[in-house]
Request: fold
Amino acid sequence: MTQLAQKLQSVVQNPLLSQRDREFARSLEKYYEKNRKLSTGRRRCLAQLEARAESLKSVNVDRKTLDRLNRLAAKVESNAWATDFVTSLTDRIGYGRELTPAQINRLGQIEEEYSDAAVEKKAKFAREFSPEMRARMNVAAEYYVNNPPYYGDLIKQIGDDEDFIPSEKQWRSMVENKYASKVWENYTSPPKYPVGTCVQLRKSSRVLFCHQSKMGFVVEAGQKVPVTSAKGGKIYLILPVGEITPIYCEERDLKLYRKKKKEEDIF
Reply:
């Protein structure tokens, strides 16, 4: 092994350097392995890394905090953001720098999130995640697809993985908020107008159509996820008499057909 290769290996394996510095050193090593030489600029970078490693020998490192970070690092491996955050704090401590109050506060939050009690609570929630809860989650996700831009990342996870189970915090935030709860109520409540019911549109209906039909029949009731949390948001598919194309409308748009209603009140 050449002297240059030994220097590169020493820097790559030096525990005093930050993970970022060691990764950079590894890129220099790969370049050398491929080209059997380093450019002037890369040699200068290697010298700077060696000097930094030497200076760190005299740095007073907060070993207690470093041990705390190392323990946490093993718990957050599945969380890319948390892993990067813990790594950045580890590097900061390794260089003899103190953590800021904001960093200490965030560190405590992550430790609490990954505590044994929190991990067991998360596992319990996953075990108790029922088919009905999944159905409710999917309804909430579809509602927010139609009402962007809320919960975009979570909706993508749900769409990409049919076995996805949210955290309890995610569940409460997206599924149990007042809007999603009202959507679920609209979706699951018994239809006011069952299939086959003869109906007409109310004056206040927001449905636009171009025909003179005086009435229509319910051909589908509540199969589609509501697009609104407003009362009466259940969706119906109506086939107007004399038409071949059905139309979608909401429960609040409809009323029972009455033969003696004025023409302006009906289809």
